[in-house]
């Protein structure tokens, strides 16, 4: 069967979005609530445009997804959202009504856009969108980053045409006829960094290997503190670039030779990754997929179940079993364990690089765009 194609006259929608007069394929991306539910969608945008898609985004009115999408010239529609909680909160009594409002708004928006397909990266904002797509008989694909599906994706799986995932173990938790092991799309620019430029950015003038420490967008206090305790033992052998999170910099160490701190990096990240020989990181799904795609030997220090649903621990153990990573439990983290693990990782880095090179999860973007195209062909 041929693609569903729509010929649309020029007009302004009520939301102020211009829809062009063209014959094209159209896709709605959705996902939000955290950067992790948005960045894989952003990574897909160049490939989708190259494949001939007009792209639209549905997120919350003022969530992080709206800010992140602004730079990509993608029409953005906001809807009401309600958080899906597994714990008691007074908002549990009111948020279902926000979800219902979001469903009605998403349905109205989808009727106007008339997309051929919806791609959901999850997060609570995605549930009204995929439910509305299902009600309108619009096919949709869901992507699950973590080892076990989050609540939003659990509510979306039944009507999904395909479910993409990162881990072999996840395939056993999903309907066999829908599950596809794809990996996570990463931003194309991350693979275009320049190591020498990274050294200039950080002010590293010698040829010592570079240790990169990254704790996620909010930083990781226990990791930050342990790394700083260990600096006297690490700096003789490594230059260290430390992305420590907002307001987490140590001002007493700003001029310490061989140690460069950032609260957050954006444009410089590709060059810092290119420069890094080994990495210490939390175990968020998108972060570790970036490490895999870039073939960076790594130590993962996952959030414990005390401060998360345990997905980072599962993610990390899977990477450890596949030979991609060394894992340190957050509760076991101390200076001695960290230093010994860093030394072991660097000494055996080629083994980890080879294991990552042999993985079949290096073309997630192409795989997912191919799935989207195939779904349209069989409709």
Automatic annotation (TrEMBL):
Binding-site list for UDP-N-acetyl-alpha-D-glucosamine: 34-36, 187, 217, 312
UniProt keyword annotation of RNA-binding present: no
GO molecular function: UDP-N-acetyl-D-glucosamine:N-acetylmuramoyl-L-alanyl-D-glutamyl-meso-2,6-diaminopimelyl-D-alanyl-D-alanine-diphosphoundecaprenol 4-beta-N-acetylglucosaminlytransferase activity; undecaprenyldiphospho-muramoylpentapeptide beta-N-acetylglucosaminyltransferase activity
Domain Glycosyl transferase family 28 C-terminal per the UniProt entry, residue ranges: 210-367
SUPFAM superfamilies: UDP-Glycosyltransferase/glycogen phosphorylase
Any Pfam family the entry gives: Glyco_transf_28
Keywords: Cell cycle, Cell division, Cell membrane, Cell shape, Cell wall biogenesis/degradation, Glycosyltransferase, Membrane, Peptidoglycan synthesis, Transferase
Enzyme Commission number(s) from the entry: 2.4.1.227
Transcription regulation found in the keyword field: no
Pathway in which this enzyme or protein is active: Cell wall biogenesis; peptidoglycan biosynthesis
NCBIfam families hit by this protein: murG, PRK12446.1
Function, in words: Cell wall formation. Catalyzes the transfer of a GlcNAc subunit on undecaprenyl-pyrophosphoryl-MurNAc-pentapeptide (lipid intermediate I) to form undecaprenyl-pyrophosphoryl-MurNAc-(pentapeptide)GlcNAc (lipid intermediate II).
Name of the protein this chain belongs to: UDP-N-acetylglucosamine--N-acetylmuramyl-(pentapeptide) pyrophosphoryl-undecaprenol N-acetylglucosamine transferase
Naturally occurring in which organism (per UniProt): Butyrivibrio hungatei
Gene from which the chain derives: murG
């Amino acid at each position: 069967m041929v693609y569903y194609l729509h010929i649309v006259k020029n007009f302004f929608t009520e939301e102020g979005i211009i829809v062009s007069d063209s014959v094209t394929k159209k896709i709605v991306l959705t996902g939000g609530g955290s950067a992790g539910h948005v960045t894989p969608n952003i990574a897909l945008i160049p490939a989708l445009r190259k494949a001939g898609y007009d792209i639209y985004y549905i997120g919350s009115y003022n969530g992080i997804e709206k800010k992140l999408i602004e730079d990509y010239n993608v029409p953005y529609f906001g809807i009401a959202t309600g958080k899906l909680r597994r714990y008691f909160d007074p908002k549990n009594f009111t948020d279902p009504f926000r979800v219902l409002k979001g469903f009605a708004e998403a349905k109205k928006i989808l009727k106007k856009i008339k997309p051929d397909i919806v791609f959901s990266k999850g997060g609570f904002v995605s549930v009204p969108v995929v439910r509305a797509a299902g009600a309108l008989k619009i096919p949709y694909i869901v992507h699950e980053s973590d080892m076990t599906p989050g609540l939003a994706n659990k509510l979306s799986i039944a009507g999904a045409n395909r479910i993409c995932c990162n881990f072999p173990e996840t395939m056993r938790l999903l309907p066999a006829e829908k599950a596809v092991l794809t990996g996570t799309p990463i931003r194309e620019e991350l693979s275009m960094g320049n190591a020498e430029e990274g050294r200039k950015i950080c002010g590293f003038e010698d040829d010592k290997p570079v240790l990169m420490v990254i704790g996620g967008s909010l930083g990781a206090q226990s990791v930050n503190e342990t790394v700083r305790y260990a600096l006297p033992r690490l700096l003789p052998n490594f230059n260290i670039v430390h992305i420590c999170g907002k307001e987490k910099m140590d001002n007493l160490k700003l001029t310490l030779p061989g140690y460069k701190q950032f609260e957050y990096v954006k444009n410089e990240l590709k060059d810092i990754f290119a420069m890094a020989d080994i990495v210490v990181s939390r175990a968020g799904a998108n972060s570790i997929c970036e490490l895999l795609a870039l073939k960076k030997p790594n130590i993962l220090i996952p959030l414990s179940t005390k401060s998360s649903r345990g997905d980072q621990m599962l993610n990390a153990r899977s990477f450890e079993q596949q030979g991609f990573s060394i894992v340190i439990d957050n509760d076991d983290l101390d200076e001695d364990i960290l230093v010994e693990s860093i030394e072991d990782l660097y000494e055996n880095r080629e083994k980890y690089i080879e294991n990552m090179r042999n993985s079949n999860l290096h073309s997630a973007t192409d795989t997912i765009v191919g799935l989207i195209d195939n779904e349209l062909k069989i409709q």
